[in-house]
Protein backbone atom coordinates (compact mmCIF):
# COMPACT_ATOMS: atom_id res chain seq x y z
CA UNK A 1 0.00 0.00 0.00
CA UNK A 2 1.17 3.53 -0.73
CA UNK A 3 -0.16 5.77 2.00
CA UNK A 4 -0.22 9.54 2.30
CA UNK A 5 -0.46 10.89 5.86
CA UNK A 6 -1.38 14.56 6.11
CA UNK A 7 -0.16 15.88 9.46
CA UNK A 8 2.42 13.08 9.36
CA UNK A 9 4.98 14.89 11.54
CA UNK A 10 2.41 15.33 14.28
CA UNK A 11 1.84 13.22 17.37
CA UNK A 12 -0.55 10.60 15.95
CA UNK A 13 0.78 10.90 12.38
CA UNK A 14 4.34 10.01 13.41
CA UNK A 15 3.17 6.87 15.25
CA UNK A 16 1.02 5.90 12.27
CA UNK A 17 4.00 6.38 9.93
CA UNK A 18 6.12 4.05 12.08
CA UNK A 19 3.40 1.41 12.07
CA UNK A 20 2.83 1.55 8.29
CA UNK A 21 6.57 1.28 7.62
CA UNK A 22 6.74 -1.74 9.95
CA UNK A 23 3.94 -3.28 7.89
CA UNK A 24 6.10 -2.81 4.75
CA UNK A 25 4.00 -0.02 3.22
CA UNK A 26 5.31 3.03 1.38
CA UNK A 27 4.58 6.21 3.25
CA UNK A 28 4.52 9.88 2.30
CA UNK A 29 4.13 12.50 5.01
CA UNK A 30 2.82 15.99 4.30
CA UNK A 31 3.16 18.47 7.15
CA UNK A 32 3.68 22.21 7.49
CA UNK A 33 5.40 21.74 10.88
CA UNK A 34 3.00 24.12 12.63
CA UNK A 35 2.18 21.99 15.68
CA UNK A 36 4.10 18.99 14.33
CA UNK A 37 7.87 18.66 14.75
CA UNK A 38 10.61 17.25 12.58
CA UNK A 39 11.97 15.63 15.79
CA UNK A 40 8.88 13.37 15.80
CA UNK A 41 9.99 11.68 12.59
CA UNK A 42 13.75 12.34 12.55
CA UNK A 43 14.36 8.70 13.57
CA UNK A 44 12.58 7.57 10.37
CA UNK A 45 14.48 9.93 8.09
CA UNK A 46 16.43 8.10 5.40
CA UNK A 47 14.06 5.10 5.47
CA UNK A 48 13.87 3.80 1.88
CA UNK A 49 10.05 3.64 1.95
CA UNK A 50 9.47 7.04 3.58
CA UNK A 51 9.14 10.43 1.95
CA UNK A 52 8.65 13.63 3.95
CA UNK A 53 7.23 16.70 2.24
CA UNK A 54 7.12 20.04 4.06
CA UNK A 55 4.04 21.87 2.85
CA UNK A 56 0.44 22.73 3.54
CA UNK A 57 -2.81 20.96 2.71
CA UNK A 58 -4.00 24.35 1.48
CA UNK A 59 -1.55 24.08 -1.47
CA UNK A 60 -3.84 22.51 -4.07
CA UNK A 61 -1.22 21.62 -6.68
CA UNK A 62 0.97 19.95 -4.07
CA UNK A 63 -1.93 17.94 -2.60
CA UNK A 64 -3.01 17.05 -6.15
CA UNK A 65 0.40 15.48 -6.91
CA UNK A 66 0.68 13.65 -3.61
CA UNK A 67 -2.85 12.21 -3.70
CA UNK A 68 -2.41 11.09 -7.30
CA UNK A 69 0.67 9.06 -6.33
CA UNK A 70 -0.82 7.31 -3.28
CA UNK A 71 -3.47 4.64 -2.81
CA UNK A 72 -4.96 5.73 0.51
CA UNK A 73 -4.95 8.97 2.48
CA UNK A 74 -4.96 9.29 6.26
CA UNK A 75 -6.09 12.88 6.71
CA UNK A 76 -4.82 13.95 10.14
CA UNK A 77 -3.60 17.49 9.43
CA UNK A 78 -5.62 19.98 11.44
CA UNK A 79 -5.39 22.82 13.86
CA UNK A 80 -5.46 20.90 17.15
CA UNK A 81 -5.74 21.85 20.81
CA UNK A 82 -8.08 24.21 22.62
CA UNK A 83 -5.35 26.80 23.28
CA UNK A 84 -4.31 27.00 19.64
CA UNK A 85 -7.91 27.33 18.46
CA UNK A 86 -8.45 30.24 20.85
CA UNK A 87 -5.19 31.95 19.86
CA UNK A 88 -5.63 31.53 16.08
CA UNK A 89 -9.32 30.99 15.31
CA UNK A 90 -9.22 32.06 11.65
CA UNK A 91 -6.16 30.01 10.67
CA UNK A 92 -7.67 27.05 12.50
CA UNK A 93 -10.94 27.28 10.59
CA UNK A 94 -9.15 27.61 7.24
CA UNK A 95 -6.91 24.62 7.93
CA UNK A 96 -9.75 22.43 9.09
CA UNK A 97 -12.45 23.33 6.58
CA UNK A 98 -10.62 24.48 3.44
CA UNK A 99 -7.75 22.02 3.99
CA UNK A 100 -10.09 19.04 4.28
CA UNK A 101 -12.01 20.22 1.24
CA UNK A 102 -8.78 20.25 -0.81
CA UNK A 103 -7.82 16.74 0.36
CA UNK A 104 -11.29 15.36 -0.38
CA UNK A 105 -11.50 17.08 -3.76
CA UNK A 106 -8.20 15.47 -4.83
CA UNK A 107 -9.33 12.10 -3.49
CA UNK A 108 -12.42 12.52 -5.66
CA UNK A 109 -10.30 13.48 -8.69
CA UNK A 110 -8.16 10.35 -8.38
CA UNK A 111 -10.73 8.00 -6.73
CA UNK A 112 -8.65 7.39 -3.59
CA UNK A 113 -9.79 6.13 -0.18
CA UNK A 114 -9.60 8.66 2.66
CA UNK A 115 -9.76 8.23 6.42
CA UNK A 116 -10.66 11.51 8.15
CA UNK A 117 -9.63 12.11 11.77
CA UNK A 118 -12.53 13.84 13.49
CA UNK A 119 -12.91 14.51 17.18
CA UNK A 120 -15.12 14.00 20.23
CA UNK A 121 -15.33 17.83 20.30
CA UNK A 122 -18.15 17.50 17.79
CA UNK A 123 -20.46 16.27 20.64
CA UNK A 124 -19.98 19.65 22.32
CA UNK A 125 -21.56 19.95 25.76
CA UNK A 126 -23.61 16.77 25.60
CA UNK A 127 -22.94 15.17 28.98
CA UNK A 128 -25.09 12.11 28.39
CA UNK A 129 -22.83 9.19 28.25
CA UNK A 130 -21.55 7.01 26.86
CA UNK A 131 -21.83 9.02 23.63
CA UNK A 132 -22.91 6.99 20.60
CA UNK A 133 -22.10 7.97 17.03
CA UNK A 134 -25.72 9.10 16.52
CA UNK A 135 -25.94 11.08 19.79
CA UNK A 136 -27.05 14.70 19.41
CA UNK A 137 -24.50 17.50 19.31
CA UNK A 138 -25.05 20.20 21.96
CA UNK A 139 -23.21 23.42 21.18
CA UNK A 140 -22.89 26.94 22.52
CA UNK A 141 -22.57 30.11 20.44
CA UNK A 142 -20.58 29.78 17.20
CA UNK A 143 -18.78 32.96 18.27
CA UNK A 144 -16.99 30.96 20.97
CA UNK A 145 -13.80 29.44 19.57
CA UNK A 146 -14.40 26.04 21.06
CA UNK A 147 -17.75 25.63 19.32
CA UNK A 148 -16.47 27.02 16.02
CA UNK A 149 -13.71 24.38 16.18
CA UNK A 150 -16.33 21.72 16.91
CA UNK A 151 -18.31 22.96 13.92
CA UNK A 152 -15.24 23.02 11.65
CA UNK A 153 -14.57 19.35 12.38
CA UNK A 154 -18.27 18.56 11.91
CA UNK A 155 -18.09 20.23 8.49
CA UNK A 156 -15.14 17.92 7.67
CA UNK A 157 -17.33 14.97 8.59
CA UNK A 158 -20.19 16.23 6.46
CA UNK A 159 -17.87 16.81 3.50
CA UNK A 160 -16.41 13.32 3.84
CA UNK A 161 -19.86 11.80 4.14
CA UNK A 162 -21.38 13.62 1.15
CA UNK A 163 -18.34 12.94 -1.03
CA UNK A 164 -19.10 9.28 -0.34
CA UNK A 165 -22.88 9.51 -0.79
CA UNK A 166 -22.95 11.75 -3.82
CA UNK A 167 -19.66 11.05 -5.59
CA UNK A 168 -18.78 7.58 -4.36
CA UNK A 169 -15.42 8.59 -2.82
CA UNK A 170 -14.65 5.87 -0.25
CA UNK A 171 -14.33 7.77 3.04
CA UNK A 172 -14.12 6.59 6.65
CA UNK A 173 -14.69 8.98 9.56
CA UNK A 174 -13.07 8.33 12.94
CA UNK A 175 -14.00 10.44 15.97
CA UNK A 176 -10.99 10.39 18.25
CA UNK A 177 -11.50 10.92 21.96
CA UNK A 178 -8.49 11.96 24.10
CA UNK A 179 -5.43 10.24 22.69
CA UNK A 180 -2.15 10.15 24.62
CA UNK A 181 1.39 8.84 24.31
CA UNK A 182 5.00 9.75 23.67
CA UNK A 183 5.66 12.82 21.47
CA UNK A 184 2.37 14.54 22.29
CA UNK A 185 3.06 18.19 22.93
CA UNK A 186 1.61 19.85 26.01
CA UNK A 187 2.01 23.26 24.38
CA UNK A 188 -1.54 23.53 23.02
CA UNK A 189 -3.58 22.47 26.04
CA UNK A 190 -3.20 18.65 26.07
CA UNK A 191 -3.51 17.73 29.71
CA UNK A 192 -1.35 14.63 30.28
CA UNK A 193 1.90 15.89 28.68
CA UNK A 194 1.34 19.21 30.48
CA UNK A 195 0.86 17.55 33.88
CA UNK A 196 3.79 15.15 33.41
CA UNK A 197 6.11 17.97 32.36
CA UNK A 198 5.04 20.10 35.35
CA UNK A 199 5.45 17.15 37.74
CA UNK A 200 8.93 16.25 36.43
CA UNK A 201 10.07 19.85 36.91
CA UNK A 202 8.55 20.05 40.40
CA UNK A 203 6.24 22.85 39.23
CA UNK A 204 2.60 23.12 40.36
CA UNK A 205 0.08 21.10 38.31
CA UNK A 206 -2.45 23.58 36.96
CA UNK A 207 -5.94 22.08 37.16
CA UNK A 208 -8.44 24.15 35.19
CA UNK A 209 -11.87 24.76 36.72
CA UNK A 210 -13.06 22.58 39.61
CA UNK A 211 -11.09 19.51 38.47
CA UNK A 212 -14.29 17.45 38.75
CA UNK A 213 -14.61 17.26 34.94
CA UNK A 214 -13.80 13.76 33.68
CA UNK A 215 -12.16 12.38 30.55
CA UNK A 216 -11.04 9.00 29.14
CA UNK A 217 -7.56 8.52 27.64
CA UNK A 218 -6.53 6.01 24.98
CA UNK A 219 -2.93 5.18 24.13
CA UNK A 220 -1.76 6.20 20.66
CA UNK A 221 -0.69 2.64 19.73
CA UNK A 222 -4.29 1.48 20.21
CA UNK A 223 -5.48 4.37 18.06
CA UNK A 224 -3.01 3.56 15.29
CA UNK A 225 -3.94 -0.15 15.32
CA UNK A 226 -7.59 0.77 14.90
CA UNK A 227 -6.93 3.33 12.12
CA UNK A 228 -4.99 0.74 10.11
CA UNK A 229 -7.79 -1.83 10.49
CA UNK A 230 -10.54 0.68 9.71
CA UNK A 231 -9.01 1.95 6.46
CA UNK A 232 -8.72 -1.65 5.34
CA UNK A 233 -12.26 -2.74 6.23
CA UNK A 234 -14.79 -2.50 3.38
CA UNK A 235 -17.70 -2.09 5.84
CA UNK A 236 -16.10 1.00 7.40
CA UNK A 237 -16.61 3.01 4.20
CA UNK A 238 -19.29 5.69 4.37
CA UNK A 239 -19.52 5.33 8.13
CA UNK A 240 -18.36 7.02 11.35
CA UNK A 241 -16.72 5.45 14.40
CA UNK A 242 -15.94 6.64 17.92
CA UNK A 243 -12.47 5.67 19.06
CA UNK A 244 -11.52 6.09 22.70
CA UNK A 245 -11.17 4.54 26.11
CA UNK A 246 -13.99 4.14 28.62
CA UNK A 247 -11.73 4.35 31.67
CA UNK A 248 -13.03 7.59 33.16
CA UNK A 249 -10.96 9.82 35.43
CA UNK A 250 -11.52 13.30 36.84
CA UNK A 251 -8.81 15.83 36.02
CA UNK A 252 -8.21 16.30 39.74
CA UNK A 253 -7.63 12.54 40.20
CA UNK A 254 -5.44 12.53 37.11
CA UNK A 255 -3.20 15.25 38.59
CA UNK A 256 -2.87 13.25 41.83
CA UNK A 257 -2.01 10.11 39.87
CA UNK A 258 0.64 11.89 37.80
CA UNK A 259 2.25 13.25 40.97
CA UNK A 260 2.32 9.75 42.48
CA UNK A 261 3.70 8.06 39.35
CA UNK A 262 6.45 10.65 38.92
CA UNK A 263 7.26 10.69 42.62
CA UNK A 264 7.04 14.46 42.38
CA UNK A 265 6.95 17.10 45.10
CA UNK A 266 4.60 19.24 42.96
CA UNK A 267 1.35 20.50 44.39
CA UNK A 268 -1.99 21.00 42.65
CA UNK A 269 -3.19 24.53 41.90
CA UNK A 270 -6.66 25.36 40.60
CA UNK A 271 -6.92 27.94 37.82
CA UNK A 272 -10.30 29.38 36.79
CA UNK A 273 -11.20 28.74 33.14
CA UNK A 274 -11.32 32.48 32.35
CA UNK A 275 -7.70 32.77 33.45
CA UNK A 276 -6.53 29.63 31.66
CA UNK A 277 -8.37 30.32 28.39
CA UNK A 278 -10.73 33.26 27.83
CA UNK A 279 -13.76 34.98 29.33
CA UNK A 280 -16.86 32.80 29.02
CA UNK A 281 -14.88 29.61 28.23
CA UNK A 282 -17.12 26.56 28.43
CA UNK A 283 -15.95 23.04 29.25
CA UNK A 284 -17.85 19.78 29.29
CA UNK A 285 -18.07 18.01 32.68
CA UNK A 286 -17.87 14.54 31.17
CA UNK A 287 -16.93 12.85 27.92
CA UNK A 288 -17.15 9.08 27.58
CA UNK A 289 -17.44 7.26 24.25
CA UNK A 290 -19.64 4.33 23.36
CA UNK A 291 -17.25 2.19 21.33
CA UNK A 292 -19.50 -0.77 20.60
CA UNK A 293 -19.60 0.03 16.87
CA UNK A 294 -15.83 -0.08 16.37
CA UNK A 295 -15.57 -3.11 18.67
CA UNK A 296 -18.10 -5.02 16.62
CA UNK A 297 -16.47 -4.17 13.28
CA UNK A 298 -12.76 -4.64 14.01
CA UNK A 299 -12.66 -6.14 17.53
CA UNK A 300 -11.30 -2.90 19.03
CA UNK A 301 -10.33 -3.09 22.71
CA UNK A 302 -7.90 -0.79 24.55
CA UNK A 303 -4.78 -2.69 25.59
CA UNK A 304 -3.37 -0.22 28.14
CA UNK A 305 -4.77 1.15 31.40
CA UNK A 306 -4.41 4.76 32.47
CA UNK A 307 -1.42 4.11 34.78
CA UNK A 308 0.52 2.38 31.98
CA UNK A 309 -0.37 5.18 29.58
CA UNK A 310 0.93 7.82 31.98
CA UNK A 311 4.08 5.74 32.60
CA UNK A 312 4.79 5.65 28.86
CA UNK A 313 4.56 9.45 28.71
CA UNK A 314 6.75 9.83 31.81
CA UNK A 315 9.42 7.53 30.34
CA UNK A 316 9.44 9.37 27.04
CA UNK A 317 9.70 12.77 28.73
CA UNK A 318 12.59 11.55 30.87
CA UNK A 319 14.46 10.78 27.64
CA UNK A 320 13.82 13.82 25.47
CA UNK A 321 13.91 13.46 21.70
CA UNK A 322 17.41 13.73 20.26
CA UNK A 323 18.19 17.05 18.58
CA UNK A 324 17.93 16.18 14.92
CA UNK A 325 19.85 17.35 11.92
CA UNK A 326 18.15 20.15 9.99
CA UNK A 327 14.65 19.33 8.66
CA UNK A 328 14.34 19.24 4.88
CA UNK A 329 13.43 22.60 3.36
CA UNK A 330 10.00 23.04 1.78
N1 LIG B 1 -4.67 13.91 20.09
C1 LIG B 1 -5.95 13.87 20.39
O1 LIG B 1 -6.33 13.66 21.55
C2 LIG B 1 -7.00 14.07 19.31
C3 LIG B 1 -8.35 14.05 19.70
C4 LIG B 1 -9.31 14.25 18.74
C5 LIG B 1 -8.97 14.40 17.42
N2 LIG B 1 -7.66 14.41 17.05
C6 LIG B 1 -7.37 14.60 15.63
O2 LIG B 1 -6.26 13.80 15.22
C7 LIG B 1 -5.52 14.49 14.23
C8 LIG B 1 -4.04 14.49 14.62
O3 LIG B 1 -3.89 15.18 15.84
P1 LIG B 1 -2.58 15.12 16.77
O4 LIG B 1 -3.03 14.90 18.14
O5 LIG B 1 -1.59 14.20 16.16
O6 LIG B 1 -2.10 16.63 16.71
P2 LIG B 1 -0.79 17.26 16.07
O7 LIG B 1 -0.93 18.75 16.23
O8 LIG B 1 0.42 16.64 16.63
O9 LIG B 1 -0.96 16.86 14.54
C9 LIG B 1 -1.52 17.67 13.55
C10 LIG B 1 -0.48 17.84 12.46
O10 LIG B 1 -1.04 18.58 11.37
C11 LIG B 1 -0.04 19.49 10.91
N3 LIG B 1 -0.72 20.57 10.20
C12 LIG B 1 -1.50 21.55 10.73
N4 LIG B 1 -1.93 22.37 9.75
C13 LIG B 1 -1.43 21.88 8.58
C14 LIG B 1 -1.52 22.28 7.23
N5 LIG B 1 -2.23 23.36 6.87
N6 LIG B 1 -0.88 21.55 6.30
C15 LIG B 1 -0.15 20.46 6.63
N7 LIG B 1 -0.02 20.03 7.92
C16 LIG B 1 -0.65 20.74 8.87
C17 LIG B 1 0.68 19.94 12.16
O11 LIG B 1 1.96 20.49 11.93
C18 LIG B 1 0.75 18.62 12.93
O12 LIG B 1 1.91 17.91 12.61
C19 LIG B 1 -6.15 15.86 14.07
O13 LIG B 1 -7.00 15.87 12.94
C20 LIG B 1 -6.97 16.03 15.34
O14 LIG B 1 -8.11 16.86 15.16
C21 LIG B 1 -6.66 14.25 17.97
Q: In words, what does this structure look like?
A:
This protein is α/β, with parallel strands linked by helices and 330 residues long. The protein has a domain at 2-179 and 218-244 and 287-302: Rossmann fold (3-Layer(aba) Sandwich), CATH 3.40.50.720. It is 40% helix and 17% strand. It contains 11 helices and 13 strands. The strands form 4 sheets. Strands 3-2-1-4-5-6-11 form a 7-stranded parallel β-sheet, sandwiched between helices. Helix 5 links the parallel strand 5 and strand 6. The longest helix is centred in the middle third of the chain and has 23 residues, at 145-167. The chain is globular and about 55 Å long. It starts with a strand and ends in a 12-residue tail after the last helix. The site of nicotinamide-adenine-dinucleotide has 29 residues, from helix 1, strand 2, helix 4 and strand 5.
Keywords:
330 residues, alpha/beta, Rossmann fold, 7-stranded parallel sheet, globular, binds nicotinamide-adenine-dinucleotide
